[in-house]
Design a protein that fits this description.
Two copies of one chain form a homodimer. Helix content of chain A is 42%, strand content 19%. In chain A, helix 1 (2-18) packs across helix 14, helix 8 packs across helix 9 (281-289) and helix 10 packs across helix 11 (333-346). Chain A folds into three domains: 2-72, Arc Repressor Mutant, subunit A (Orthogonal Bundle), CATH 1.10.10; 78-188 and 367-391, Nucleotidyltransferase, domain 5 (2-Layer Sandwich); 202-360, Nucleotidyltransferase, domain 5, CATH 3.30.420.40. In chain A, the strands form four sheets. Chain A has a five-stranded mixed sheet, with helices on both faces. Chain A has a five-stranded mixed sheet with strand order 13-12-11-14-15, with helices on both faces. By secondary structure, chain A is of the alpha/beta class. Chain A has 14 helices and 15 strands. At the A-B interface, helix 1, strand 12 and helix 10 of A face helix 1, strand 12 and helix 10 of B. Chains A, B: InterPro entries: ATPase_NBD (IPR043129), ROK (IPR000600), ROK_cs (IPR049874), WH-like_DNA-bd_sf (IPR036388), WH_DNA-bd_sf (IPR036390). Chains A, B: This is ROK family transcriptional regulator. Chains A, B: Belongs to the ROK (NagC/XylR) family.
């Protein structure tokens, strides 16, 4: 038992080093870990036998010698990643490096309830697996983002306002009737923050992803870790009051909420009040792209309102990157210009000196990439792997 | 080398278990770690030889048998903990459980600059060590809170507005001329958050400590970890704009900052404008304690202003506890009532359902307790101990 645990721990330790995909020699691995070269040789063989790492050819050909560098084998397993939005859903198969192998998107109303939506997800994932020549035995984990608060430890939505029928639904339990793999569930803005950081800002430890669409919310990464808060509702900035909106009712029952002023539908309403034909956020985006001056002004003002709330966020968590995403981010720089105008005027110089406020790099891919991250991170974690080593 | 590393790692692993002070038997330790009982016996002997753990007598006397339970020996070493405020400083000696063994406080102007202030600290600490019968060889680490932003990795203040002469001063380097132990430096509100959590709210993972005094700032613990942000200025909420203050100039150059409306001096100024004699925060506290109605109203309004900013903080980080501290917290419930009034009205029900907004449990002890935590956490960390094991 003792030997097995120690072996498992050192195999896992070695693998955590190799996870970044950078090829390393046995000598480099020995140096980084402090383990003896004989131990390294044994562990490398074990990881290769498991298929988790793969030999990488040297840059310079070395003739007939055995390959001397090793790295993560991203093809060892796949994960199922899903981004469930309010009215639209995406499911994808990715490898262990987060590369999307196949993907399918469809209009789907989350209010249909958990069983229809998750059944759609399973069917879609099964078809995609077949398309890429894999099967459920190759699936290491499932990652899912949903548009509401989630108790991350159990994978259950908690009082989600726009997800009728999902409250306390046991998403992992439901999947386990079909597939016995770990299921990680999180709020969609949290998965977007993970996706944006992994693809757009590797190594950045303090990042906020702000989604501006039908609703407004943020995913907060602080100290390198996604912050979910005590009830899993961290980042729920859509119902913070902004000064301009004292008389605007919000569907939450309060007045002057950011979402009631700066979301896609809110901007459309403002434009209608000015006699401009706009019913949805998409209409607003189209108007801005066609150069409509009222739409550009309304979007800029929405940016200022968002900036008002973000000013406090910048002071509180001191991020180095704020990435603006969600469907309204497609309006481009007009929205971000409004955000920057207020944040750089109002926040302290120390907090904004190295702060970038930018359009999301991953845009609409953020959610599914983050769901893949969530699944891969779990599947390759020391805990998951150690269990795998000991029990296999 | 391999064997030494693995031994050091398992000794450290065992010690991390015993750090909580709960006595455990060898059998319990074997079960928790998965290590063989023979290995446990060797490691326990090693930790006892180092003085880090100590036998604990059984509740029921077992006659002549050797003691069978072990726990952290808090007396193994001491740490020096210091809370440097704007105009007042405290230095203390604590044991490894954070218990204060001796303490000294004095009015001291931080603007005197680093050398006079740190010399005062060394002299004070030396005298306290002597008083408790210890010497510098017993000191495991030094923890210091200072009233400004700190780059935690180097222990250097960075552009601290009220600490002239301290910008980029190498505090650890200066101490190392006198004493070769680790020196941990942090912003004073951060240390207060650590102290409050350790003593008042053990096990709470999401806590904000809000200091209301001459300035206003917050220390944020999320996911169990103190969050310092990208530039070490996380929690700097004193210069967030509040709605009521559009025309009130702040010494930062902006207008309407929270600090310009709700700090001790700001409340005193409001009272003077109403013809009430008040020059400092202490005057305000005295007036409230004597039941002065204008002072009570002004303090309540300051609470509302602070609540306005905290509403956004609650939405963003979703804490389960907000502890109100700093010298103005001595006014008692009037201030907190104002905070609660706004936060519970304005924040989302999900974020406030399990939120406690309370007076700091540790009050003026928070800073020095937190500085002790900072030092002890470092001194007993697996990294610090492993280095100790290998090099000793």
């Amino acid at each position: 038992m003792t030997d097995t645990s120690i072996n498992a721990a050192s195999v896992s330790q070695l693998f955590q080093l190799l996870r970044d995909g950078v090829p390393r020699t046995r000598a480099e691995l020995a140096k980084s870990t402090g383990l003896a070269r004989s131990t390294i040789a044994l562990r490398v063989d074990e990881l290769m036998r498991m298929g988790l790492i793969t030999p990488v050819a040297d840059a310079v050909s070395t003739g007939g010698r055995p390959p001397s560098q090793f790295a993560l084998n991203p093809a060892a397993k796949v994960v199922i990643a899903a981004d469930i939005g309010a009215s639209h859903a995406t499911v994808a198969i990715t490898d262990l490096a987060g590369t999307v192998l196949a993907q399918h998107s469809e209009d789907l109303d989350v209010a249909l309830g958990p069983v229809p939506v998750l059944s759609w997800l399973v069917e879609g994932a099964t078809a995609l697996l077949e398309r890429v020549g894999r099967n459920t035995a190759n699936v290491a984990a499932i990652g899912i983002g949903v548009p509401g608060p989630v108790e991350h430890s159990t994978g259950q939505p908690v009082n989600p306002p726009i997800m009728p029928g999902w409250d306390r639904f046991d998403i992992p339990g439901w999947f386990h009737q079909h597939l016995e793999v770990p299921v990680l569930v999180d709020n969609d803005v949290n998965t977007m923050a993970l996706g944006e950081r992994a693809v757009g800002w590797p190594g950045i430890e303090h990042l906020m992803f702000v989604k501006i669409a039908t609703g407004i919310g943020a995913g907060v990464i602080s100290g390198g870790l996604l912050q979910r808060g005590a009830q899993g509702v961290a980042g729920d900035i859509g119902h913070v009051q902004v000064a301009r909106g004292a008389n605007v009712p919000c569907k939450c029952g309060n007045r002057g909420c950011l979402e009631a002023l700066a979301s896609g539908p809110a901007i459309a309403r403002t434009l209608r009040e000015q006699g401009v034909e706009a019913h949805t956020g998409t209409d607003v985006v189209d108007l801005v792209k066609r150069g409509n001056i009222e739409a550009i002004q309304a979007v800029r003002q929405a940016g200022r309102d968002i900036g008002e709330v973000l000013t406090t966020c910048v002071s509180l968590v001191n991020p180095s990157v704020i990435a603006i995403g969600g469907s309204m981010a497609r309006v481009g720089e007009h929205l971000i210009a409004g955000v920057r105008e207020v944040v750089y005027t109002r926040s302290t110089p120390l907090a904004t000196e190295h702060l970038s406020i930018v359009q999301s790099v991953t845009a609409e891919r953020a959610g599914v990439l983050g769901a893949s991250m969530l699944a891969v991170e779990h599947a390759l974690s020391p805990e998951a792997l150690t269990v795998g080593f000991v029990t296999r």
